Amino acid sequence: MPHHHRASSLRQSNKAFKSKHATKTTLREASKGRSASDVSNTSRLASHKASPLSASGNEVGSRQHRRNHAKQAQRSKRNALIQSNRVFSSSSSSSREGKDGLSKGFAGAGAGAPRICAVVDLAEDGDSWEAVRRIQEEGIDGGVQPVAGRSVEEALAQGLPYCELEATRFRQTIQFLPLPYGALYPILDACKCADFVLLVLSASTAIDSGSWGELCLRTLQAQGLPTVVVAVPTLHPDGATGVGGSKKAGAALKAANEVRKSLLSFAKYFSPDVEKVHALDDRAERGALLRILATATPKRVAWRDFRAWMVSESAEWEPTSDSNLESKGNGEANGLSGLNGQNAQRGTLKVQGWIRGAPMSADRLIHLPDFGDFEVDRITYAPPPNARTKRSKASATTATNDNQGDDAMVDADTADAAQDAPLTAGDVLQSRDEEFADDLVSENEPDDMANEQTWPTEEEMRVAERFAKQLPRCMDH
Fold first, then answer.
1. 337, exposed or middle or buried, with CB in 10 Å at 0-12, 13-18, 19+?
2. pLDDT per residue over 410-420, tens digit each?
3. Is 68 in the same domain as 165?
4. Among residues 467, 295, 437, which one has the least CA distance to residue 374?
5. pLDDT digits over 27-61, tens only?
6. What does the alpha-carbon distance between residue 378 and residue 395 come to, in Å, rounded to a whole number?
7. I need a labelling partner for 184 at 20 to 30 A (CA). Which of 197, 275, 387, 416 fits?
8. What's this model's pTM, rounded to 2 decimal places?
9. Helices (H), 244-305
């Protein structure tokens, strides 16, 4: 009887040979007769043109896709940063804009738009004008120079609500809006259009729970805050000094650090982006504060980016003559100079400033706080007060009027679409088109007689007689 061997389950199975590098035979079979240069070019082209879905299975294509994606994201962020700061930079040429309104983010020749900084006092012993004065005291050596006619002293003498300082080292203009303690509504209006909010705290007066300072901060937080910077007049409220009269020695330095830490903790509760509390009595910290205001990119306020807004730098009222008033057929319209009904007159209000945010169009309505909505008559061009060259032009002026006879004017940035002819003061950039422009009628005015039953017309009666049913003679009595 023949003997048959049964296969053992313990039979050894050796691992197949796997070459770490492709052999010549494998490369020859993969090339399928093509030369080495053709194979490399094809693989490079395939990896470059691979879609995100098909590149995942290709190692070279996936790596190239990740590199391209990272490069595109980097370029997008860089362009967004440049665009956000473009309004503050200067340009070497002026431009005009078409019918679609003034384009945003472009400053005219020679000087850009000023950086707006609202200075808010949160303590009773604070002084916002004094805080700006200390920054101005840096002088030429510190890179600070007041704009002609708009220094702190000249603004207080003329009754201006703002002052402007030029950071010569950074070629930027900073417009300060000092606001007093307790003025809640002016603070809210100023922070609506500010790029920075400078909170002036006190080292001796705490902001307790339920105080006006806390109310102001919570209201600003609900409205939406731009970039917040915190400053304090001094970290040594009692004038304490260290050894040898120095404020940076011994117990005085320790007390100052404790005050700084406490104020920083308070500020971070309402604005987590705050990194430091700047002491205005220290020249180095004043320079750091000025550098932030002149170089930092303002924080984006979402609800504001969809609107055109401005800070008025000057306003002028031009009454309309009686002949023009009668020709328009409305002699009882109230102007801004006669809101109470006495000496009411029509006219043109010219307001000069920088238009920021969304593009400005003369066909849209504008809103003046405490006065209402108005129609724009035209947008004209006005040179900035801090122009560095003779050909520099950066602001624009718009004349506005409403259906009741009130006119208003706003200034705007120059447009992105550059043209050969340079702009001059008084050039009309855009005029109101009555066919497409918005009017002041915002609600439907109901007609009280629309629902009344009226007598049928003669035509309706004739139609009714033609379709009337004729009764038989036997039923006619």
1. middle
2. 444 444 444 55
3. no
4. 437
5. 777 777 776 665 555 555 454 444 555 545 555 56
6. 14
7. 275
8. 0.65
9. 250-270, 283-295, 302-305
